[in-house]
Design goal:
Elements lengths: L5 E5 L11 E5 L4 H10 L5 E3 L3 H13 L4 E5 L20 H5 L3 E5 L3 H9 L5 E4 L4 H9 L4 E6 L8 H17 L4 E2 L1 H16 L9 H13 L3 H8 L3 H7 L7 E10 L2 E10 L9 H4 L13 E5 L5 E5 L2 H6 L9
Parallel strand pairs: 1-7, 1-8, 2-6, 2-7, 3-5, 4-5
Antiparallel strand pairs: 9-10, 11-12
Helix pairs in contact: 6-7, 7-8, 9-10
Bound molecules: D-malate.
């Protein structure tokens, strides 16, 4: 297929939105990862809400209608008062899903970004590292001007979401080298390409996809929000959210009439239905490209799990001749 794709990237939900054919909303830590996990586990309708108050009211009204909603989400990464769950994808089990007919969700950035994209009237899908390939295929089946909407963090760009957008764009360019990128799309692409070159090399006997996954997680762990999540005990969410292409489930936003307005609701679509990109490239053995002349220096892992790269002799200055983590 010689479709020329064009990619726009929005780096946080505070930005003005460009005109595109289709939106992929990314909040890998953790809103779109949670949404994807909900449908992976067989979940019913999921209602994204703008605020905690709106979510509480909607859950109460659904219960009055005989529904059994699970109320989930976060403020500062933990469950708000009155919610059944926080926002950890590891809490989304088949047992949980079997006990609830639907879900209501309110998060700091992810659900806001989703609802903002919904207001454009274009198709909107929840994307993350776990459904990367399927989400990209689904978007390509709906148009050639693709908007990748990074939810960001508190109205500012987030490394984890930007990195994931870069992974999407890098794959798109692997298949469609002429893909046109906006400035912000180029920034995201550079973020991923730079990070994946300096991350630990993958083991050449495994596939491209698994090398991508390990490099992706390595870099995601350095994100502000990842460091914060690890600090408050959600470190396992990061590994889970960083598993690239773990599922074909792609949540899609629909609008249903409610009173004299419309209500946003997420339902699953399945990426394999739109096989525009073929997975052969990703399943092929990884050819670990020689990195650009590797920076002289060493990685130092801090107590909070973040990493600092010391170029040249800086490392000795800071740490004497302590062995770096890659020298153990
Ligand atoms: C967000 O909306 O930014 C995330 O849901 C935050 C989180 O889950 O910690």
């Amino acid at each position: 297929m010689s479709k020329l794709a064009e990619v726009e990237v929005v780096l946080s939900h505070s930005e003005r939105l460009p005109v595109v054919d289709v939106w992929l909303i990314i909040d890998i830590l953790r809103a779109t990862t949670v949404m994807t996990s909900w449908f992976e586990a067989g979940g019913g309708d999921l209602y994204p809400s703008e605020s905690v108050e709106e979510a509480l009211n909607l859950a109460a009204s659904l219960k009055k209608d005989g529904q059994t909603p699970v109320l989930m989400g976060e403020r500062n990464a933990i469950a708000p008062e009155g919610f059944d769950l926080g926002n950890s994808p590891l809490d989304i089990t088949r047992d949980l899903v079997s006990r609830h007919s639907c879900a209501v969700m309110a998060t700091t950035n992810g659900t806001k970004a989703l609802l903002k994209a919904a207001s454009t009237g274009r198709p909107v899908f929840a994307a993350c590292a776990r459904n990367a390939f399927a989400a990209l295929n689904t978007a390509l089946s709906r148009g050639s001007r693709i908007g990748i909407f990074c939810s960001g963090r508190k109205g500012r760009p987030a490394w984890d979401d930007t990195l994931c957008a870069g992974l999407f764009i890098s794959r798109l360019k692997d298949y469609f080298p002429e893909t046109r990128c906006s400035d912000s799309a180029r920034l995201a692409l550079l973020a991923w390409r730079g990070a994946s070159e300096n991350a630990l090399p993958g083991n050449a006997s495994v596939s491209v996809a698994s090398v991508e996954s390990s490099r992706f997680e390595y870099s995601v762990r350095t994100a502000d929000h990842a460091v914060f999540l690890k600090k408050i005990g959600f470190g396992d969410d990061i590994a889970f959210a960083s598993r690239v292409d773990a599922t074909d489930v792609v949540p899609e936003l629909h609008e249903q009439p409610e009173g004299d307005g419309m209500r946003a609701v997420m339902r699953p679509s399945h990426g394999e239905a739109h096989a525009i990109l073929q997975k052969d490239l990703l399943d092929s053995p990884a050819v670990i490209k020689p990195r650009a002349a590797p920076l002289e220096g060493k990685l130092s892992d801090n107590q909070d799990g973040s990493y600092v790269f010391f170029a040249g002799k800086e490392y000795e200055k800071w740490h004497g001749n302590k062995r770096g983590p890659d020298e153990r």
